[in-house]
Amino acid sequence: MSGQISAADTAQTVATFDKHAKAYRDAFVLLPSYLATFDALADRMQPSHRRLLDLACGPGTLSLHLKSRLPGLNITATDLSPQMLMLAKEALPDGEFHCLDLRDTASLTGEFDVIACAFGLPYLDSHSAAQFLKDCAAKLTSEGLLYLSFIECDGNPHVQTNSHGDSVWRQGHTADGIQSQLSTLGLTPLWQHDTETRSETEHFLIAIKGQ
Question: Of 63, 74, 163, 168, which is most buried with the most CB atoms under 10 A?
Fold first, then answer.
């Protein structure tokens, strides 16, 4: 049985992202393999998809890219790192921002046409991730889109330490497991893609609600 990522583990992870927020932004803002997945989402969005919820938004890279293609988007974004949120606000001054744990997604008001969570799942244990997916499904409008990306592997939460000695806690998830959960929630995958990065398999998925 998978373990749990504790509040102390999460605080440690947030501190690391706060410390390296700008370096993270600069490393990933123009990474072609990620931008291609953002384009895959934009390509599947309809004119009626006006309200975007960007969860674990980091420095706002995904929202900024979608906004460049779909200027009329109304963006609500969340992150638990204050420094990441500061960078996202600078990039998207007309957005709505909340310092929020993914486990509190249900507390947000309203529904959304598109919900994106780029690499937030690795920082949730299996139990929390299952509840998070339920919360996302409840927040999606009919025929709304869900974009997810995560590390493809199975195992318990574990600590990962960078070259500076800073640590984050992560949990791998399997594509089959995520797809199975989404199916029970009434979401159907439209597109999936794998990328090998730093000896890890990163899995990207776009699903639609109600088809």
Answer: 63
In the predicted model, residues of the chain with pLDDT beneath 70 are 1-2, 29-30, 163
Are 140 and 115 contacting, i.e. CB atoms less than 8 angstroms apart?
yes
State residue 1's pLDDT score: 34
pTM exceeds cut of 0.85: yes
Give me the CATH code for the 7-209 domain, please. 3.40.50.150
pLDDT reported for residue 157: 77
Predicted pLDDT of residue 23: 79
Please give the pLDDT value at position 56.
Answer: 96
Give backbone dihedrals phi and psi of 191, rounded to 5 degrees, phi first. Answer: -160, 140
Sort residue 58 into left (φ over 0), alpha (ψ -120 to 50) or beta.
left
Burial 169-199 (b: 16+ CB within 10 A, else e): bbbbbbbeebbebbeebebebebeeebeeee
Q: Where are the domains of the chain?
A: 7-209
